[in-house]
Amino acid sequence: MTTNPKWISDWRPEDEAFWNATGKTVARRNLIWSIVAEHIGFSVWLIWSIVSTKLPQAGFHYTTDQLFQLVAVPGLIGAFIRFPYTFAVTTFGGRNWTIFSAAILFIPTLSLAYFVSQPDTPFWLMLLVASTAGLGGGNFASSMTNISFFFPDRMKGWALGLNAAGGNIGVSSVQLLTPILMTLAVINLFQATPVEGVYLQNAGLMWVLPIAIAVFGAVFFMNNLTSAKSSVKNQLAIVKRRHTWIMAYLYIGTFGSFIGYSAAFPLLIKTQFPQITIAIAFLGPLVGSLSRPLGGWLADKVGGSIITFWNFIAMAAATIGVLYFVGQKDFIGFLAMFLILFVTTGIGNGSTYRMIPSIFREENLFKVRGKGDAARAVALKTASIESGAAVGFIGAIGAVGGYLIPTGFGKSIALTGGPQLALAIYLIFYASCLGITWWFYLRRSAQGEAAGSLAEARV
Questions:
Q1: Which residues are within 8 A (CB) of 185 and not within 5 positions of it... i.e. 6 or more apart?
Q2: Which residues are CB-neighbours of 243 under 8 A, at least 6 positions away?
Q3: Rounded CA gap, 365 and 367, in Å?
Q4: Is-above-0.85 flag for pTM?
Q5: Of all helices (H) and strands (E), which one includes residue 7?
Q6: pLDDT less than 50: residues of the chain
Q7: Residue 380: exposed, middle, or buried by beta-carbon count in 10 A (0-12, 13-18, 19+)?
């Protein structure tokens, strides 16, 4: 295998000699640049979570519900675009798709920079501009699908957790850096006049150089795997697997909560505690991102379904805490409970994602029990293709939470004056996720031998 071919034809991560000799180095290099590109994708995806809080100050006359819509619509577009992004890696190659998916982020960043300097922009047009930020949300699906092929099964939880966490921290980056850079005139391409000292266009322009670096890194340091090539038809087989849909539902509860709360948190703080600076909002997605590898690591050690089960209990408890303190208008309690909730979304992200390859591996191996090593090898290859497609597909459905949660908060505040109604609905949803996790993955007497083996295997 040459040092850095665009396409690698011989890839055997489960072969320990191959892995130690060359595989580990190549896999880690691809992981690093995958994280860089995905980090920027997440940053662009959530850019409107901060920008929307500053629009009224800059002269845009939008209602609170409309501001929540600007926050929510990138989440919806990002969720939908994850479907084609999932299958793009096995069609075009992981390196090739990373180059394209990073370069296309110039569209949402430059269009934002222009239109936020035009206070007479009608709401429908601004909503259209905000929707292009959803392009950043697609990167996660292709990135996770790609990285799942590079690592051996025993390391998938760690690798996927690290890849996802590196991307997820992009949410924290954008919420930490954007408020700071919007007060500086150092990057002012369109020479707009600041309103109340705010340069809103900087929120888009600050990502131009990082995007260029990500494209450069993907071109020169990433690889495509021929073993990851597969027809869309073969991958679409996962749509017929019931565990694809079960895990997608659970992933709305974990990742959907993370991205939804991340998007809504700054505006939620501004509407419920107007005396508090939104600069503190970055703490939520930061702790949620940092806890994600912990969820993957615990799942590797203990079993994904067990961690997921107890994590949903913790999510429900934290939601009850948020409900109580937002009603009391106690910001310290509200922040503490929300940070715990963010930590649990991160742990749940890691544990549910670790379950996916384990489930497909066990299901495929169960079908070839007693049929010999050749059949087992084919089953493992099938499981790798299917789980790669499944992680992207499930990630796409889970991302819908990025639309549902901010929308829910916006409607709840419009109807009742507060976010409590939305939080109560989210609490009921977590209870349903808890029951589903136990029923399908922890019951020893689950439906039939194949499903029973999932509980035995501690997926």
A1: 194, 199
A2: 359, 360, 363, 440
A3: 5
A4: yes
A5: strand 7-8
A6: 1-3, 446-447
A7: middle
